[in-house]
Every structure is written in structure tokens, then in C-alpha cells.
Design goal:
Blueprint: E1 4-15, E2 18-29, E3 33-37, H1 44-52, E4 59-64, E5 67-68, H2 74-79, E6 82-84, H3 97-105, H4 113-117, H5 121-141, H6 156-168, E7 174-178, H7 186-201, E8 205-209, H8 213-219, E9 222-227, E10 230-235, H9 237-241, H10 244-262
Parallel strand pairs: 3-8, 3-9, 6-7, 7-8
Antiparallel strand pairs: 1-2, 1-4, 4-5, 9-10
Helix pairs in contact: 3-5, 3-6, 5-6
The structure holds adenosine-5'-triphosphate and magnesium ion.
Adenosine-5'-triphosphate binds near residues 18 and 87.
Length: about 260
């Protein structure tokens, strides 16, 4: 077997009467872009919430680089190399773009509480270093010229990129993106595709939830499909888009046909 960065084993999540996930298992190989798709309410965001520690599973295990995450709070998962963005953009609109990225880096900043309190040289050096890194990340996502702008003044597509920048500030091994292309125009989507390929080249593993099927099929080497909380298919884009169950539950014959022609 190859190296799995993320291993999901028999994951189950129940919210009262709703079984949001049942017995879901999949592996995300290091260095790949892995898609997680399925119709509305299939459990994709729930999976992200549980993997990132914002919600708890009722059964099953999650491992990141061999470490069991199940009992760990979210910030410990961040330290282990997990980062995510949100389906509904979560940025600090009152803060600048640069400050938003710095909030993502906090977990990384060195120095003790006393260093920080007294603003000792060690802390100031770390702070300068943090700002330089944040600017590098903004450059990577194409927002360097907006560093001092208010985050709330950004165009929609730029807010989505800022979320990615903030997630990158924690220096993740695995970055989970929840519908990053939602609401983007074609040129923003193209820029996003290029960015994700750059991240992959830099060694970041990506887990991608997205409804834009052309985007998913072009980027991912492996795709996991959920429907009503259950795994219904898994495989390469070609395998998944030809799967009768996936066509029936999600793609529809027209989309499946279009994807086939475009590939
Ligand atoms: N905190 C919660 N409490 C109760 N039910 C929840 C909660 N979070 C999610 N659900 C339910 O779990 C199911 C899965 O929802 P989820 O948001 O994970 O779907 P999704 O695949 O992300 O859908 P979409 O494509 O619309 O974003 C839905 O039935 C949803 O209503
Ligand atoms: Mg969702």
C-alpha cells in the first residue's frame, strides 16, 4: 500500500435522528488532490467538521500521518498539519487582509507567553518573521497588492483566496477545501485551479469538496462519492463519472455525457 496521509475508517456521525455519515472509509494519499463529492446533504461538510475537530463522530477512527485524531481538539489537529476552509466564508471582515493571514499563523509563532507579554526581542523577531511569511503566502495566492485592504472590501473570489491564504499560514500537510470555487466567475475559477496545482507541487495534499464537476474531474486523481451519508463510489475521475450509481444519485446522464466528451 502507498502512504496514506489521511485515513478515515468506518466513520459514523449522527445528529439526533439524522445519520449524517454511516460507515464511511477512505484514504487520501500524500501528495494528491482527492475529491469528495455528492449531492446536497450527502455529508461532505460534516466529514470536514469531524476531521477538523469541530464536530465529533459517533463511531470510527480518523488518522493523520499515522496519528489518531479522535480525541484531539481542533488546535492540536492544526499543529499536526491539518487546515481547512469553510463553505460559508469565514474571515475577519474588520481586519486587514494581512492580519487575517496572521491569525492563521498563530499556532506556529514561537516564543513563550512571557516573551509575548513583554514583547521581548525574541517575540518581535518572530512577529517580523510571521509578517514576512504572511506576505509570501499572499503573493502565492495572488493577493499581495491587497495586503493592507480591509478583508470585507475584497471581491468574493478574493475572499475565498484569502481563506486559503489563512489556512496555508499554519503550514498544513493536508488542506481541506469546502467548495472553494462556489460563486467564482470563470477566470477566478481558472486562477484557483492554477493555485491548487501550485500547492500540490509544493507538497500540500488537498481534499476538495466541490460541485463544479469539470473542476473536480480535471484536478483530482482520486474521488470519493457520498450519498445520504454513505459511500457509493470511489476511484479515478473516469471510473466515478461512468459509475451508474453516481450518475443516478448525483451527476445525471447529461452531465456525465458532457464530462465524458470534455475529457
Ligand atoms: N449540526 C448539525 N445538526 C443537525 N444536523 C446536521 C448538522 N450538520 C449537518 N446536519 C445534517 O447532516 C446532513 C449532511 O449535511 P452536510 O452539511 O454535511 O452536507 P453536504 O454534503 O456538505 O451538503 P452541501 O453540498 O449542501 O454543502 C444533512 O442532512 C444536514 O441537515
Ligand atoms: Mg457542505
Amino acid at each position: 500500500m502507498t502512504d496514506a496521509l489521511l485515513e478515515i475508517n468506518h466513520l459514523g456521525v449522527r445528529f439526533g435522528a439524522v445519520q449524517a455519515l454511516s460507515d464511511v472509509s477512505f484514504r487520501v494519499e500524500a501528495g494528491t488532490i482527492h475529491g469528495l463529492i455528492g449531492p446536497n446533504g450527502a455529508g461532505k461538510t460534516t466529514a470536514f467538521n469531524v476531521i477538523s475537530g469541530l464536530a465529533r463522530q459517533t463511531s470510527g477512527q480518523i488518522r493523520l500521518a499515522g496519528v489518531t485524531l479522535d480525541q484531539l481538539p481542533s488546535y492540536r489537529r492544526t499543529r499536526l498539519g491539518l487546515a481547512r476552509t469553510f463553505q460559508n466564508i469565514r474571515i475577519f471582515r474588520e481586519m486587514s487582509v494581512l492580519e487575517n493571514v496572521l491569525t492563521g499563523a498563530h499556532v506556529q509563532t514561537g516564543g513563550s507567553a512571557l516573551d509575548i507579554l513583554l514583547r521581548l526581542p525574541r517575540f518581535r523577531a518572530a512577529e517580523r518573521e510571521g509578517v514576512a511569511r504572511a506576505r509570501d503566502i499572499l503573493q502565492l495566492v495572488g493577493l499581495e497588492s491587497r495586503a493592507e485592504s480591509g478583508a470585507g472590501d475584497l471581491a468574493y473570489g478574493d475572499m475565498r483566496r484569502l481563506e486559503i491564504a489563512r489556512a496555508l499560514a499554519s503550514n498544513p500537510k493536508l488542506l481541506m477545501l469546502d467548495e472553494p470555487a462556489a460563486g467564482m466567475n470563470p477566470s477566478e475559477t481558472q486562477a484557483l485551479r492554477d493555485l491548487l496545482l501550485v500547492l500540490k507541487k509544493r507538497g500540500v495534499t488537498l481534499l476538495l469538496v466541490e460541485h463544479d464537476m469539470q473542476f473536480v474531474m480535471q484536478l483530482c486523481e482520486e474521488i470519493t462519492v457520498l450519498n445520504f451519508g454513505a459511500l457509493i463510489a470511489q476511484g479515478s475521475p473516469q471510473e466515478v463519472r461512468r459509475d451508474p450509481q453516481v450518475i443516478e444519485a448525483y451527476l445525471g446522464t447529461k452531465t456525465a455525457h458532457k464530462l465524458e466528451q470534455k475529457s
